[in-house]
Each structure stands twice: as C-alpha cells, then as structure tokens.
Amino acid sequence: MMKMILSLDTHVSASRKLLWAAPLAGVVAAVLNGMLFSVASFLAWIPADFLMPTTGEAFGLGPVMVSSFLPSLGAGLVLALLSRFSERPLFVFSVLAGGVLAGSFISPLGIGAPVRMIAVLEVMHVLAAVTIVGGLRYALTHR
C-alpha cells in the first residue's frame, strides 16, 4: 500500500514539474532555433525564396519557432505518461527521443533544398532535441 502512495506522489510531482518544464523547454528551443535560423538566413544558407513543399508558403522564422515549440508539449506528455506507467521513465523516454531524433533526420532530405540549408535544418533538429530532452530530464531529476 505504501509503495502505491509513493508512486502516486511521484507521478503527481512529475506531472506538476512537466506542466512548466515542457513549455519552458519549448520556448528555449524555439528561441535557439530562431537565432540559428536568423544567422543562417543572414549568411544566405537558407534561401529567402524557399517555399515549404507541404504548404507552398515561404520558409520563415514563424514555422521554425512553432516547429521547435510544439514537440516539447508532446515530449512532456509522453514523459508524464511514462512517469506514471514505467519503472524507468527517463531511460525509456531517452530511447524514444533518440528514435524520434533519428527519424527526424529523414524529413529535410526530401524537400529539394540546398545542402547548406539541409545541414542547418539537421542542426536545428539536434538543438531542439537536446534542449527539450535535456530540459525535461533536468526538471524531473532536480528540485
């Protein structure tokens, strides 16, 4: 009985931490990727006239920041569920996040972009992953 109470308290504590940590990690990832996008655009590594193949809209700062922020909310939800149902939530979360990161490397390859732009997009994926996963792990392991 005591183990069940401790488990529930741990889950509630983890959920509370993730309520603020996930959006915060997303904001940090969005700002960092926004800065990287701005520098890459200034250096003309990302063409100003590049259109996103899925929407036909210009590839700009807005989509970069939204695409950097939203995964943090999903990651926070996954980690909250894992903290509730897994004995090793941080390990399982890290393995899943690594798989998602590896899969994310495929998407920029098929958009017909210049090599420098693809390289910047891949670095953005790594930057977002490290920021979000690191931030969420830190939030659960520190007071």
UniProtKB/TrEMBL annotation:
What transmembrane ranges does the database entry give? 21-46, 58-83, 90-111, 117-140
Source organism superkingdom? Bacteria
* Swiss-Prot/TrEMBL keywords: Membrane, Transmembrane, Transmembrane helix
Protein's UniProt name: Major facilitator superfamily (MFS) profile domain-containing protein
The organism that produces this protein has a lineage beginning with: Bacteria, Pseudomonadati, Bacteroidota, Cytophagia, Cytophagales
